[in-house]
Amino acid sequence: MNHYLFFLGHQPHISTAEIEAVLVHTAVEPPRFHIGVGLHNSGIDGYQMELKNKNILKLSAKKSINPEELIGRLGGTVKIAEQIANTDDVRDAIINFLQTVQPEGKIQFSLNGQNSRELSLDIKKKLKKSGRSVRYIEIKNTATILHNNLIEKQGDFTLLDDEVYITRAIQPIEDFAERDFGRPGTDSKSGMLPPKLAKIMLNLAKVNKKTVLLDPFCGSGTVLMEGAVLGIEKMYGADISKKALEDTDKNLQWIKKSKKLFNLSYQLHACDVSKIDKYIEKNSIDTIVSEPLLGKPLRGTEDEKTLRAQANNLGELYISAFQAFQKILKKDGIIIFIIPSFAYKNNWITVDCAEKIAKIGFTSVPFSKDNKFLQYYRPGQKLARNIWRFKKL
Questions:
Q1: Smallest Cα–Cα separation from 230: which of 250, 205, 253, 247?
Q2: Staple 219 to which of 80, 174, 190, 236, CB 3.0 to 4.6 Å?
Q3: Within a 13 Å sphere around the CA of 299, how many CA atoms are in the beta-carbon half?
Q4: How does pLDDT run across 7-26, given as a tens digit for each residue?
Q5: pTM of the model
């Protein structure tokens, strides 16, 4: 078996669901996993997953994977490491590995895990005794790994359960930052969806380059940009705001040129979402991925009546949207859709529309045995994004 560590982002349950969705890209059954420390069978032939702690997932695979290729696909994984040794003498295992992969010049390395500080000093001391110049680098974040070229030098180690792992790939943080802050079209009212979350949502939908994708609330085009980066060749975007569509067009032209996506084609439509079926051919869309209007920005001072009124209004909007989606989505087409909840005191006020959506002709496809949706939320926030997956019946 080949063993890997996936270092997960700040929403590990969502990162885990994304990894499984990518690994079972052609699976019919929804991924099966649980969130909690312990070994489980992922339901994927050839893979086992074990959540070692809140933020580290161990993947055991019959076949080797390509960490660099996989990290480019994922949005919620910070880095991927591969096991190079399973031994009681981890010190000598690391020393021998470093002398092999860095045979000349100054050896540079970092080490994380159990007793890593003490062990690092011991490794550095022994290497110096052998006549090598050594620099130990203390890692603060993945930017430290990137800026010290520790991927190329094969020098970033992690110790876990007497197993030695070497980091093979880290998240392309600069690419994400460029698409988030460097795109030509943006404003304060659109483009608020983080690119990483947009990519996660696309992966949860199991898109591929032949997927015909629609974002009916496209804003400045975050979902469509990430779809283009994933290689999707045909996409549609719609928004009620003409300014948002102008931004989307600028951004897609920019990403098309910068990434040399010569096969990318797209259409943009300015329309109310309830009338989108007037602009797009019936039964022509494979997948819809979208963060819709989530209501007015919250200050935290709203009373319960105000929040419930907002939730009801949004529910009506979403239901009218799904009525239009039912006409343009292909049979068995997938929708990844964010439905918000609003914090009020110690409770959540939810947009209650899932049952009405089901009556339109959709079924919700759970992400796990116990969870119909995945909640994207950070402590202290007044709004939670609940990621739902629906399939057209």
A1: 205
A2: 190
A3: 4
A4: 999 999 999 999 999 987 53
A5: 0.92
How many CB atoms sit inside 10 A of residue 272's CB? Answer: 15
Q: Which region, left, alpha or beta, applies to residue 148 given φ > 0 means left and ψ of -120 to 50 means alpha?
A: alpha
Question: Rounded to whole angstroms, what are the CA distances from 289 to 30, 61, 338, 358?
Answer: 17, 30, 9, 17
Q: Which two tokens stand for residue 85?
A: 């040794």
Separation between Cα atoms, residue 385 and residue 182, nearest integer Å: 25
pLDDT attached to residue 43: 44
Using CA atoms, how far residue 193 sits from 27, 146, 228, 286, in Å, is 28, 25, 16, 22
Tokens standing for residue 311: 């939730």
Q: What residues pair up with 338 in beta bridges, in sequence order?
A: 387
Q: What is the mean pLDDT of the chain?
A: 92
Q: Are strands 107-113 and 156-160 parallel, antiparallel or unpaired?
A: parallel
Helix ranges (DSSP H) in 102-241: 116-129, 142-147, 173-181, 195-204, 222-229
DSSP string, 270-329: ES-GGGGGGTS-TT-EEEEEE-----SPP-S---HHHHHHHHHHHHHHHHHHHHHHHHHE
Token readout for 317 is 């909007």
- Are residues 213 and 207 in contact, defined by beta-carbon separation less than 8 angstroms? yes
* Residue 365: closest CA among 339, 334, 329: 334
Tokens 């359960």: give the residue.
161
Q: What single letter denotes the amino acid at residue 67?
A: P
